[in-house]
Structures are given as structure tokens and as C-alpha cells.
Prior knowledge:
The protein is mainly beta. The chain has one domain: Jelly Rolls, CATH 2.60.120.200. It contains three helices and 16 strands. The protein has helices at about 10-15, 25-35, 255-265, and strands at about 40-45, 55, 65-70, 75, 80-85, 90-95, 120-130, 135-140, 145-155, 160-165, 175, 185-195, 200-205, 205-210, 225-230, 240-250. The strands form two sheets. Strands 1, 4, 5, 7, 12, 13, 14 and 16 form an eight-stranded antiparallel sheet that branches. It has an eight-stranded antiparallel sheet with strand order 2-3-6-15-8-9-10-11, with no helix packed on it. The longest helix has 13 residues, at about 25-35. The mean pLDDT is about 90.
Amino acid sequence: MPQNDRNAEMVGLLETDFVGRNEPNYAWRSAVSQLLALPGLRAAWPMSAVTYLNRAKDVANGNDVYKVGGGLTYGYEGLVPYANFTGAANSYLRRADGGAGNWGDILGTESYIVGAYRGLTLGGWFYIEGLGNNEVLMAKWEDAGNQRSYLLRKENGTGFGRMYVSTTGADFPSVTGTIAMNTNSWNFVVGRADNTSKDLDIFVNNNNDTSAAAYAAAINDSTADFTIGARNPAAPVEYLTGKASLCFLCAASLSDTIIQAIFENQRAMFNV
């Protein structure tokens, strides 16, 4: 009689530490629903849902982002849906600012969020093609007129992630990661601002770095557009050459546990 080499008892003991089925199709089936469960979710763009007007759909609250020009295309790699950015001026996604206190104006002090969880979290999966330039992942940030709010980008040369916020429009405290993003590969990149501790955090895959007490007040309510793959169209724009998938924006400071849960539950889908 053939011997069964599968140790069911050991599998059971390890299920609290490892995903029960760590395979791409299992991650794919729940990827979007995981985003919809994020606290304080303001928008989620899986890059799979695209309208006939070339808008990437926000599947949470209808805050669709608009394709600028003809350089940006949508596609998929295995099970991963993505928006493809060419690094050119006509290749990014945007949604115009809607006025004071509008959908993208997250101050981190929103009274409808429990006090301990107030803040800002944004990020997603990004395919990076090179390390040579500063490249914006997600932002609501314009230097002209000091219209700065928040900025998540890859740093020139090092490939480190960096998260900025501005409280006045003129200041820009930040935190820089210490683990480089992988080139020609998918990276899970998240920036977080915690209104209680005033810490800034940058997560790249399963590593995170913190700048303690980095900022002092509410995040600035700017007039800059919200953008993915660039920042507000005024120099320097820092266009992304690569891809983006499963992006999200939250009006809350998500815990390490939640952020790492997204990474661990989705990573097989991205072959990470």
C-alpha cells in the first residue's frame, strides 16, 4: 500500500503562519475583495475594470482615474491586471481635484475614523523597469504654488521607496526605505502616515522603515490632481516607466498586520 508522505498534523500546526494555499489562482480569486475590506477605503483601482472612456474604475466609491493621452494601455500578465506606463508625458492616470475637502483630500484627522486609526495609507503593486530616475507611483502633489499633499515614489538610483506628506504645502517631511525595489519584477509598495504618533512609514514587500514623529499637523488640502504614474502635470513630473495593479487609497492609518496581510495574500499572484 503506498505511503502518504503528507504530514496533516504539521500542515495544521503551520496554518496560522502560512497561507493554506499559496498559489496564484487562490490569491487571484480574493485580491479585489481584500481591497474592499480595507478600513477607511477611499478608492481601489484593480486596473482590471476599465470603462469605454478609458478610465480605470474605482470599484469602491466611483472615484475613477482618467487615462491621459494615448501612451497608457491596459493589459494582464498571467493573472495580474495592470495599467502600463511608458515614462512619457501622455502616459499616466489622473483625477482632478474636486475642491476643498473632496475625495482625495485626506487630512489624516477625519473625525469619522476612530481616533487611534486616523491617518493616510496608499499603495499597491508596481512593476519597476529601472532605477535610474525618480518615478512617481501615486501622488497628490504639485510644487508650483506649494500645492503638496502626499507623494509615494521610487527614488533615483537607489530604487528605495519614499513617502512624503506636507502639512503646509511648503514643507515635505518624508521617510525613505532601506530595501531597494526589484527591477523587472513586481513590488508591493505602501506609504503610511499615522496621525497619532505622527510617524511616516514606507513598506516595500515584507520590509518597512519608519521616520518617527516626522510631521506635526494635518496633511495639507491641496488643489493638485490625484495621479498614478506621475505627479501633477508641472515639472518635474517624474513619469513612471512600468506597471501598476491593485492600487488603493485609505483615509486611515492601516496597521502593520493589515498591510502585511495584503502582501502575503496577494504575493503568489505576482510571483513574489
